[in-house]
Amino acid sequence: MNSKQTAGRNIAVLAAAQALGGASPPIVMSLGGLVGLQLASNPAWATFPVSLFGLGLAFGTLPAAAMMRRWGRRAGYVLGALKGILGGAVAALGIFSGSFKVFCLGTFIAGLYSSYVQSYRFAAADAAEGEMKTRAISRVMVGGLIGAIVGPQLVIWTRDALPPPFVGSFLSQAILPMIAIPVLLMLRTPRAEQAAQGIDTGRPLLEILRMPRYILAVATGVVSYGVMAFVMTAAPVAMVKQGYGVDNAALGIQWHLLAMFGPSFFTGRLMARFGKERVTAFGLVLLAGSGAVALSGAALSNFWGSLALLGVGWNFSFIGATAMVTDCHTPAERGKAQGANDFLVFGVTAIVSFLAGSVMHSAGWVVINWAILPALALMLVPLVWQASRAKVAP
Questions:
Q1: pLDDT class of 336 with cuts at 50, 70, 90
Q2: 116: exposed, middle or buried (C-beta count within 10 Å: 0-12, 13-18, 19+)?
Q3: Which residues contact 199 (CB under 8 A, 6 or more apart)?
Q4: Rounded mean pLDDT, 300-308
Q5: In this structure, are residues 33 and 250 in contact, taking their beta carbons and an 8 Å threshold?
Q6: Which one is predicted more confidently, 215 or 389?
Q7: How far apart are CA 127 and CA 269, in angstroms?
């Protein structure tokens, strides 16, 4: 099998693994705040399990990158899947025993699993060259579209399957990475990459961190993912408080996730045609538009419409930011550059997820949506300036 065939095989494997791994976060996002309301002694801590999921994701990125540099991506991804099995099982145990602390531990471990899943997009980019990198990222992210369908449906099908409510949903979360393991075992690491395992060459990380283009790419990823998580974490709680019920909240998250991954069919082509920076900037504008829709009313259509726009905006801005990061490092530097990016992105995401619960409890849904606008405006200025200087392929 030549290198091009190997790359195609790896992208297909990663897309399938993304479908399974991408079904896990919707379960935490849809139910984490609601289970938190049931188990936490203080309602302000309701979204803390979701925050710990993000914290686990952030803390897991650098160790995951180091482990994969040493042992290869396939071994790392299988280890990550084992953590996913453990996370779902522990979260289910927390609900069954009525322990908020145990449930939080489970969501944290599930976040560690997601730190591996999030790197699938970089693995796809590593398998491609030139402008094909953006399309490879998009193809793998399409797998998330399946996860966006499966995850919320699992919530609906399994939330009352076992007593007490939601135990079945988190047990199903443990089954997903179990299915992913044989898929991941089909991944084939190119020999050139295998030979480079464990060798730390290229520029020091601090030098990469000082690059203006890298700073812009990382900051854009931080803002796009942070804004999305801030709003999405609060949305299920806001819908239930408005009287729309758990199923409507789960379906709202499903529409959001479909919007997050659905555009991946053509995001890569848009970036090749109009440029990474332009598509990324447009994504930030759509994120602002989601806030405007949410602020225009409290009907179910406002919630779902806002979440859908939030998803499309995230797709354009986050995939664009990911592609911008891949332009800032050599193959030898990718482990540290990509790991540092994900650590910063998901570290901030964990913080804002926790803040979402406090802001939602103390100030409400309206303030949540007003709060995202300054951050988006702050990022749009340098991004539009960079987009005006970027060359676009004819």
A1: confident
A2: buried
A3: 332
A4: 94
A5: no
A6: 215
A7: 18
Which residues, at least 6 apart from 158, have a Cβ–Cβ distance to it below 8 Å? 168, 169, 171, 172
Can you list the domains of the chain with their CATH numbers? 3-189+203-388 (1.20.1250.20)
Residue 305 token pair? 């419409």
- The residue with tokens 């964990």 is 350
Mean pLDDT of 228-253: 86
For 191, the token pair is 């020999």
Q: Please, are residues 32 and 49 in contact by the beta-carbon 8 Å criterion?
A: yes
Q: How far apart are the first and last CA of the chain?
A: 33
Q: Tell me how long the chain is.
A: 394
At 26, list the tokens.
């919707």
User: Tokens standing for 279?
Assistant: 């598509």
Per-residue confidence band for 189, with pLDDT thresholds at 50, 70 and 90: low
- Compute the distance between CA of residue 303 and CA of residue 285 in angstroms, rounded to an integer: 18
Decide if 22 contacts 146 (C-beta within 8 A): yes
For the stretch 31-80, pLDDT in tens is 888 898 889 888 778 878 988 898 898 888 888 888 887 888 899 999 99
User: For residue 178, is pLDDT > 90?
Assistant: yes
Q: How far apart are CA 234 and CA 86, in angstroms?
A: 26
CA 11, 12, 18 angle in degrees (round to 5)? 85
Measured between alpha carbons, how far is 334 from 327 in angstroms, rounded to an integer?
Answer: 10
Q: How many CB atoms lie within 10 A of CB 89?
A: 18
Does residue 149 sit in helix, strand or coil?
Answer: helix
d(CA 364, CA 361): 6
Which amino acid appears at position 292 of this protein? A
Give the separation between CA 168 and CA 197, rounded to whole angstroms: 40
Residue 285: C-alpha distances to residues 2, 224, 310, 374 (Å):
42, 10, 10, 12
C-alpha to C-alpha distance for 102 and 170, rounded to whole angstroms: 13
Q: What percent of the chain has pLDDT over 70?
A: 92
For residue 356, count CB atoms less than 10 angstroms from its CB and return exposed for 0-12, middle for 13-18, buried for 19 or more: buried
- Tokens 């399974």 belong to 20
